[in-house]
Amino acid sequence: MIILAIFMLIFGVYLIYWTMYFRRMNKLTASLPEPLTLPLLGSAMNFMGNSEKMFQNIQELVNLAFQHKGCVKVWLGPKLYVAIANPEDAQVVLDNCLDKDKVYRFLRPWLGHGLFIAPVDLWKTHRKVLLPIFRNKIVEEYLDVISEQANILLERLEEKLDKGKFDVLKYITACTLDIVFETAMGERMDVQHKPDTPYLQARETVITIINKRLFKVWLQPDCLFNLTSYAKQQKDNIDLTHKFTDEVVQKKRFEYEKKINKESHVQSSGKLQAVLDLLFNREIEFTNEELREHIDSITIAGNDTTALVIAYTLVLLGVHQDAQQRVLQEQEAIFDKSKRGANREDLQRMSYLERVVKESMRLYAVVPIIARNIHEDIYLPVCETTLPAGTGAVIGAFAMHRSEAVWGPTANEFDPDRFLPERSVGRHPAAFIPFSYGSRNCIGRNFGMMIIKSILSTVLRSYQIEAQPINKLKMEMLLFPTEGHQIKISKR
Ligand code: HEM
């Protein structure tokens, strides 16, 4: 009897707490539109089904948001999310809320406290240390690695010459993996020649399971997830990837210690200094575990994103032959008929290609949403709403990049020249955010652009591309065309 009374009391207090919580959250955001919301579930049914269906549902939410100054609210079970697709409010959130939303917790077993999902206090000190390593002067040292891998990509693509359409992403991903691994860890993976290594398979499996968890509501609570076979599969494969990076970190630590003890006779000058080499002997003495978490975060965040941008750009250029012709003219003005790799000055001269890449990232924001935790009440000036602490703010980069309010009536059309300086005057700084915005933006953005331009330059100087427009998209952690990045290639 007493136990029942205690139980009822606890339940009663819990109910009062939630009723007050919901009331406050709903009151503060009362002016925002919301889709059909059911008790307990909220609008979770919008986030069920396959990733293509979900993309359509999200588009409907976006349309609802555009009817209300670019903001919409969505209850997912007990959690309130506000999705934002106008630059002014996005800027306020991205400038002030540096804490990642709880949804990123699914990456925690893999990336630990690596930069990508580090809690704010830790992130502040670690980002300061990592930032100088991604300066242009340092990443430009990696241009030789990029050209070498780009040439291997050309050789691999030869098997597809004049053979009809094929999905180019897998070729590009192998190339960017080789670049990112070698420059981050100083180790050659040679994925382009050996795509079936256990490490890569493990990495793929982990990404697949995390994607499933993100979008299947019933897999989200740990207690349910741990009952499924996915939990063990995830753990085994994460252990395998950790073991790989741990071994590289130990080897590098050994080399570093030998060097500082002056036991090494190996001259380090002239040898490529990978990101990992540069992380030793800094203001913070990182532990091996921290080094592994940072390197894993960099290789995960830097690879598929870069590969996707290249693949989308190739498809767009295959559709828009006039733009491809302009890119080629620019390339010939820089290289004449030479097939050499691009250097720093060459990359700076590729201004039209840069506009094409930006337009590709605008139309296909490969990181379509960015989710932040609102840690204290914050006012959104355009939506004229206070987001209460505890809300998740979802910045819809994909939606904002296609907003007619921002980009005009041609928002859905491919027009690289909209990035000409004279046509960019007056555009809000947070209107175009492929690399996010504010102090927690992408640390590898310049490096990413360098890889993208170099690879496109190499491929386009050798091959003519043809493609059909992309029809349907699906959303996983990143944005993919349902039918892949289909292109045809022929020799120039
Ligand atoms: C076109 C290619 C790329 C795109 C579109 C991209 C996009 C992004 C975005 C949108 C974020 C913020 C995510 C969020 O707040 O949820 C981010 C963060 C990050 N990116 Fe990139 N990225 C690219 C290339 C790279 C490269 C090449 C690297 C490194 C080699 C890299 C490393 C990182 C890291 C470490 C973070 C976390 C930064 C932090 O929290 O301080 N990215 N990236």
Strand content: 5-15%
Mean pLDDT rating: 92
Instruction: Give the CATH architecture.
Output: Orthogonal Bundle
Structural class of the secondary structure composition?
alpha+beta
Radius of gyration based on Cα positions: 24 Å
Task: Identify every distinct bound molecule in the structure, by name, code or SMILES.
Answer: protoporphyrin IX containing FE
In total, the number of strands is 11
Distance between the termini: 85 Å
Report the CATH topology name: Cytochrome p450
> In CATH, what is the class?
Mainly Alpha
Query: Which sheet architecture does the biggest sheet show?
Result: 4 strands, mixed
CATH homologous superfamily placement? Cytochrome P450
Whole-number count of domains? 1
Structure in words:
- The protein is α+β, with helices and mostly antiparallel strands and 492 residues long.
- The chain has a single domain, classed as Cytochrome P450 (Cytochrome p450, Orthogonal Bundle), CATH 1.10.630.10.
- Helix content is 53%, strand content 9%.
- It contains 20 helices and eleven strands.
- The protein has helices spanning 2-28, 51-66, 87-96, 108-111, 120-130, 136-139, 143-157, 169-185, 198-215, 222-225, 229-260, 275-278, 288-319, 321-335, 344-349, 351-363, 397-401, 404-407, 421-424, 445-462, and strands at residues 71-76, 79-84, 166-167, 369-373, 378-380, 385-387, 392-396, 463-466, 473-475, 479-481, 486-491.
- Strand 1 (71-76) and strand 2 (79-84) form a beta hairpin.
- Helix 8 packs antiparallel against helix 13, helix 13 (288-319) packs across helix 16 (351-363) and helix 13 (288-319) crosses helix 20 (445-462).
- The longest helix has 32 residues, at 229-260.
- The radius of gyration is 24 Å and the shape is globular.
- The termini are far apart.
- The mean pLDDT is 92.
- Bound molecules: protoporphyrin IX containing FE (HEM).
- Protoporphyrin IX containing FE binds next to helix 13 and helix 20.
- It is found in: Endoplasmic reticulum membrane; Microsome membrane.
- Heme binds at residue 442.
- It is a peripheral membrane protein.
- Its main location: endoplasmic reticulum.
